[in-house]
Design goal:
The chain is an alpha/beta fold. The chain contains 18 helices and 27 strands.
Length: 633
């Protein structure tokens, strides 16, 4: 008989390890189905001892050990994979099981014993050699050139009888890349993503794992655990994307895991994209990352880029939404039977409504500002919690602070821009893509196709529309985007620069930016297609404030009852007193609870010391912990 210790491979497990007994020896590092209450869950075997060596543990246990009923365990992970997961679990202050379950489809864990994959046992010597041989490269260039480089890499690896894994952050990107890169090698390309059925996932996983010929795997991070011993190159495409960070617990940055996996297995790692993260550019400048080909920092060509100063319209009534330059561009584009894309940053009619007398914003009960929308009748909608209400008659819609009825809207959303465009150009076909007007991906695809089939039309959209612009348009314009920078997020400049640069590259002739801040360097750099200047300014600012890559941020978040929030804030300040914590509240309210955050800044690339790790692990059951989060809000 044997005593078996396992790590549950399910999210939200109440314990990091569980103990069972088995009548036969089970392979260390294998996956099995362990009984938990009235069900069985996938689990990783982390320790196994003969009963004679574990008698004291069994005698001192306050519960009766349950028996492993089925199987003797199945090896699922390649050498180095579990080591990587253990390292990342320490970095993110989460359990090993939470990390592993983030990189393996649930159906694969549940059916692991039915898969015909044979995994070699790990040896330490091999791992040391693989770490030594690991290579890290960066690739920043336009889409066409970058995909051409990927094709060359695949051909090169196939010639060496090696496989390639290309990772993309979203299902849509995986599908698009699959269509392009699989041409000519369809029998050896596997497209893996979360939209596949369980049956399809099992079939493709098994075939991709066992095919004798080298393969190209294009998938989301969930599939990086697929065991191909011959896979020696892994590509993180569009590595600037925020979608690489999981939105659900445990909020992992999957890029960190993939990079550590490449180190552990001695794989060539390529970080690619039209633009790279600011952190990545700094690592390149420090020679930590090498160029695959020279990085591209300019996007020139014959495109005319202009920044339009909207301050000259400030005193005009009614307010001017469309500048003379944009009107002229629309007229010229339509007259030549071409098409134009107009981007705006906000949904609804107006992002905020405030009291003209005291400045109080009209808010939802959760605390977030209401956004004014207009369907058949005007109504308020909260974009945070989804609550809404009809707009009250003029004599009843009053300020909740001073009672004034003088409420006015601030800014303009996509619905207001749509109204003004229809008034100015009533005969021109106008298409719109945003999350209020489009609920399904298929509908967005259909609208984009209609736009392309109708030269002389306008496509109006928010950020949601950009992925559906797959072919360049003649002209594009950014309107009412200044408000996007009001969010106090240290990565917001990078996010907006990437988005605006993407729109610019999808434009053939003319690119306009309407703004009340025409001197803003980011706008000027985008208009000129000058990317290096942006990185220089961004790195300078981050260094000044100690943000990544010049510091390490650790953020914790919980929902605290209002009556104890002051006491909890004091506790956090005392707990982290040696680390100069910043403790602050969110501005929303949910079921009488308020978001409470703490933020720790560690200088340079300093890793958390043992004392800090212990303190944070004490909180992890009640706080969501993130290292170098995308936002500090």
């Amino acid at each position: 008989m044997f005593v078996v210790t396992v790590t549950p491979l399910v999210r939200g497990a109440f314990k990091d390890t569980l103990t069972y007994w088995s009548p036969k020896e089970i392979l260390l590092g294998s996956i099995l189905q362990a009984p938990l209450k009235n069900r069985e869950i996938p689990a990783l075997v982390t320790e196994i001892k003969p009963l004679g060596e574990a008698k004291s543990l069994v005698k001192s246990s306050s519960f009766v050990l349950r028996k492993i009923q089925h199987g003797s365990g199945k090896m699922l992970f390649l050498p180095g994979f579990i080591d990587t997961a253990q390292k990342v679990s320490s970095l993110h202050f989460i359990s090993l099981g939470e990390v592993l379950s983030s990189f393996v489809p649930k159906i694969i864990l549940e059916k692991s014993e039915t898969l015909g994959v044979k995994i070699k046992r790990e040896t330490n010597t091999g791992n040391q050699m693989k770490r030594f041989l690991s290579e890290k490269l960066v690739l920043q260039t336009g889409d066409e050139d970058r995909l051409g480089v990927y094709k060359s890499l695949v051909r090169e690896e196939f010639a060496r009888k090696k496989s390639v894994f290309l990772c993309a952050p979203t299902v849509r990107e995986v599908k698009r890349l699959g269509e392009i890169l699989s041409r000519g090698i369809e029998n050896y390309t596997f497209i893996l993503h979360g939209d596949l059925s369980q049956k399809e996932t099992l079939k493709l996983w098994s075939k991709a794992s066992t095919l004798a010929h080298p393969v190209l795997i294009i998938g989301t991070p969930l599939f990086v655990s697929l065991p191909r011993e011959d896979c020696k190159t892994i590509i993180i495409e569009n590595e600037i994307s925020r979608n690489y960070r999981s939105i659900r617990d445990p909020h992992l940055d999957t890029r960190v895991f993939i990079e550590n996996l490449a180190e552990s297995r001695g794989m060539r790692l390529v970080l690619g994209g039209f633009l790279l993260r600011t952190d990545t550019i700094q690592r390149h400048d420090e020679r930590e990352l090498l160029e695959l080909i020279p990085l591209q920092f300019r996007h020139g060509g014959t495109l005319q880029g202009s920044v339009i100063d909207m301050r000259r319209y400030r005193n005009e009534r009614p307010y001017v939404y469309i500048s003379n330059e944009l009107k002229a561009l629309i007229e010229l584009t339509i007259r030549e039977h071409k098409s134009i894309f107009i981007f705006t940053g906000r949904r609804g009619l107006a992002p905020t409504t405030s009291c003209a007398d005291c400045g109080t914003l009209v808010r939802c009960s959760c605390g977030a500002p209401f956004v004014l929308h207009d369907s058949k009748k005007p109504y308020f909608l909260c974009h945070k919690c989804g609550n809404g209400r009809a707009l009250l008659p003029d004599d009843r819609e009053k300020c909740t602070t001073c009672g004034s009825w003088r409420l006015s809207t601030l800014g303009a959303g996509i619905e207001e821009i749509e109204k003004k465009l229809k008034e100015a150009f009533p005969e021109i076909p106008l298409f719109r893509i945003d999350s209020d007007s489009v609920k399904k991906e298929g509908d967005a695809i259909k609208i984009a196709q209609q736009f392309y089939k109708k030269p002389g039309s306008i496509l109006l959209g928010t950020e949601m529309a950009v992925p559906y612009i797959e072919s360049p348009v003649s002209a594009s314009a950014l309107v009412f985007v200044d408000s996007l920078f009001t969010v106090p997020d240290f990565r917001m400049n990078e996010k907006m620069f990437d988005l605006f640069a993407r729109i610019r590259t999808l434009t053939k002739d003319v690119f306009l930016i309407q703004t009340l801040e025409p001197e803003k360097p980011l706008y000027q750099n985008i208009a000129r297609g000058e990317f290096r200047s942006f990185y220089i300014e961004e790195l300078k600012e981050r260094k000044e404030f100690g943000y990544p890559p010049f510091g390490t941020l650790i953020k914790g978040t919980t929902m605290a009852p209002k009556e104890i929030i002051d006491k909890e804030s004091e506790r956090l300040e005392h707990l982290f007193k040696n680390y100069e914590p910043r403790v602050y509240r969110g501005n929303t309210l949910e079921k009488n609870k308020v978001p409470l955050h703490f933020l720790l800044k560690l200088p340079g690339k300093r890793a958390p010391d043992e004392d800090l790790v212990v303190k944070i692990r004490e909180l992890k059951n009640h706080y969501r912990i993130e290292q170098n989060p995308d936002t500090i809000l």
